Amino acid sequence: MNNxxxxxxxxxxxxxxxxxxxxxxxxxxxxxxxxxISPETREHILEVVRQANxxxxxxxxxxxxxxxxxxxxxxxxxPGQPLWSxxxxxxxxxxxxxxxxxxxVLLILHTVASLKxxxxxxxxxxxxxxxxxxxxxxxxxxxxxxxxxxRVGLPAVIVGDTRGLSPLGCVWTDDEAAARLAVxxxxxxxxxxxxxxxxxxxxxxxxxxERAFMGAARDSGIQVNAETIEADHDTADTVAGLxxxxxxxxxxxxxxxxxxxxxxxxxxIERGLRVPEDLSVLAWDDGPSATxxxxxxxxxxxxxxxxxQLAAQELLxxxxxxxxxxxxxxxxxxxxRQSTARARG
Length: 345
Prior knowledge:
Helices cover 43% and strands 17% of the residues. By secondary structure, the chain is α/β, with parallel strands linked by helices. Helix 1 crosses helix 2 and helix 5 packs across helix 12. The chain starts with 12 loop residues before the first helix and ends in a 10-residue tail after the last strand.
């Protein structure tokens, strides 16, 4: 008997597909016991897997065991930071739960400390048949989770615009169009110096928004002295300094997080800046807190619950053998309120 290839456990789905002379999708279907390929093709793929000694229990379990009746969502813990933005996370999960309840499927919400730990968790979940699939939140620019999910064959839907970056299905929102909508609103009010209070540029959607923000600023003739101001305990000082400078003062902000926008608006007012007379503020992702502050905040709005519901429905379709898709999940509109007005002077 030939000894197993000692490197075989590191084979990717693509490498198995190459050995079996089939598509990566066919390999995923075979390993997960999903329909869509012939019995002969399935047996051929599983024989290649057995010969390679590559996690043979995955295929056996997928073929012999019933569904777990659960899907997973994993978030990354960051010291001193909430797991979710309140304006996004709660509404998104409510939509996910609504879709799952219709099918009698449960949700596991798990937290980890790093992307690497999350990727390893997916392999463990796959081996244990703990979940039938996962929703992947906040894709990164260079994201090890995507390749790992391809490798282990766990059904997954990415919540973010990974079109062209991964063969995994994704449900995305048009962040580029949203950023341009925000800039257009402020430019139309005569603002010529706009700053963006951003987040982690390692996150794919923040990077997309940054590029779109700068592109829209150039197209609108807006002079931007500070590309992106970091959202931290020094933000109010930075903004106040730019807003009170003699030459080309800052007159408008786009703030990525609604809760941070509420806090920042209050802090700036306490420091003597008038909103919107001195400084217009526009928040990303509308929510109840936008109207609990005076002045009420202008905000970009999207149906986040519907976004979560669609993402869960796409994942359930994958679990039942449907092909992965890249589908737009939400469109963004702008709700104009009291915090934006014509630029001074």
